[in-house]
Amino acid sequence: MTESVSRKGLPANQLAAAGARKFVRALLSERAAAPPATAGPGAAAISQELIHDAVLLTSELVTNAVMYAGTDIDVTCRLEYGRPGEEGAGKRRGRAKVGVVMEVSDRHPSRGVRGGVDSRSGEPGYGLQLVGALAESWGVTYHKAVKTVWFRLEATEGEPGTAGSPSRQLDSRRAEPPAPLSHPVRERARRPGFAAEWADRGGPSFLAETSELLAGQLDQDMVTALAAQLLVPRLADWCAIWLTTEGGGMQLSRVWHVDERRITPLRDDLERDPPAEIVRTAGIPWPWPECAGASSTGGSALAFPLVARDTDQGVLLLGRAGHLQMTDTVVRMVEDVARRVAQAVFTARQYTRQTTISLALQRRQLPASLASIVGVDTAIVYEPHGEGQTVGGDFYDVFPMGDRRWCFLLGDVQGKDPEAMSVTGLARHLVRLLAREGHGVESVLDRLNLAMAEESAEAVEQGGEQAASRFLSLLYGELEVDPGVPGARCTVATAGHPPPLHMFLDGTVEPAAEPQMLLGIDEGTEFQASSFTLAPGETLLCVTDGVTERRSGNWQLDDNDGLMEVLRDGMGLGAKALAEHVRRAAHDFGTGPVEDDLSVLVLQAVTPEADRRP
């Protein structure tokens, strides 16, 4: 007997079951297809049916672990090969044998295995019935810190259930689920008048397919759409899903019918008669809608609750033509599907809620629009690096200070996490407050530097030395315009920020400010500003290090004054076109994706005849 062991760790989320299925299927398929010299003595016994059973049962156990334990999960696959002997007088090679032992472990040993008994109805669950029906043996092992649910499958080369042999047929003893406990609603459903049973047309892989389709869906309407099309026509002729609303009501999210022409009238019919209250018990009879079809014989409709984390998510309604009795096996199947749908809806709602809050907070970090400056065109290009974010560590602002004076800034906070985003809002609003109190460019930087240094000191005092200090680079300046005089008087200073570039009419480009220390490092630092005239036709380019430090191999974009060359190449362009030109140059400089926030601010003095502003 030889043995091989493979393990995979999975997080406790909606992708866990899909990850487990992929792991088991890939592992067993690889062993089955490997050459005999490397595959092991029993690999010939690994059939597609064996792989299917192992994938299905593992998926069920992982789903149970995610729903009831909620901890990280380890999936272990142990292959036990029986070495072929010799048979008969001719000494033929014996048939290969293999045992597949799958173990699903979680870190919640104090919580029992609840896949076998439904937590609300007290009836056997569907997942462990599959394990009991298909596995040679199974059980639960409790350790001090780990609980493991395991099962064993066996196969022999050439026997039913292996490659090249007839399909395995489960005997009636193993295929029949255990007798369920009494359920009051189902007992009421067993009244005279039912002509036949509500058959299960889903197949043994139905639950696994449901989990795989719903995994990772972060939109509740997409969840209900997939669920409805999965249930129809496998388990019902039509399906309707109501979802709870924030106001405590019910909204019809999805309606599906085998006859698509009936979907709209069925929706109208159901919307006129929504659930009066939350359904608490599975399999409650529901009035048959006239628009559902089967007008001569009527039909059977049943409602199931959608509950996740002890929270009502809605109601699932299934209908099928004819007076049918839903068997306990089908009820448990639908209950399991309803739990998966409810969990997917709950996850999608949590994601949507967090995303909405995040976007609302992010929008407050940046100005809604840039102030219009008389005699100066302005343009901004802003690309946050984080996926799904509207705001990153970079921030900008242009705001008026009276009729003749405007302030502008471009900054970058160390880091890209939510803490960094909170600093961007603090810095931008503090700069506005200081400017409105009459502080000039140098004074604004001095006071902002003091505030950042004090906040870093407080963070270290509260969180210890491991607390991350927040440093800030900032370019801040003022533009002052005299009525009737073209151009503007500019005063600007930088603190740990790439210096702004001043491009003259003849194409000459030079830095407009001297480099200085980052804000928040030394509270005693005094900052110096530079003043100059931005004449008509001249441009001031301000960027963050996402542009200057854009990499291509060992080179950065600003090496050898590369940004100056990019600015010269854009000579003659308007402010918006020039900002886009710089953004495109940064993207084109490297072959990989941009690894940082990217921000470009262009201020361009215009000639009086070109200035269309009042």
TrEMBL record:
Alphabetized Pfam families for the sequence: GAF_3 (PF13492), SpoIIE (PF07228)
InterPro entries: Bact_Sigma-Reg (IPR052016), GAF (IPR003018), GAF-like_dom_sf (IPR029016), HATPase_C_sf (IPR036890), PPM-type-like_dom_sf (IPR036457), PPM-type_phosphatase-like_dom (IPR001932)
Keyword Hydrolase belongs to the record: yes
Chain residue ranges for the region called Disordered: 157-190
Keywords: Hydrolase
GO molecular function, a single term: phosphatase activity
Stretches assigned to the PPM-type phosphatase domain: 376-605
Protein name per the record: SpoIIE family protein phosphatase
Organism of origin: Streptomyces auratus AGR0001
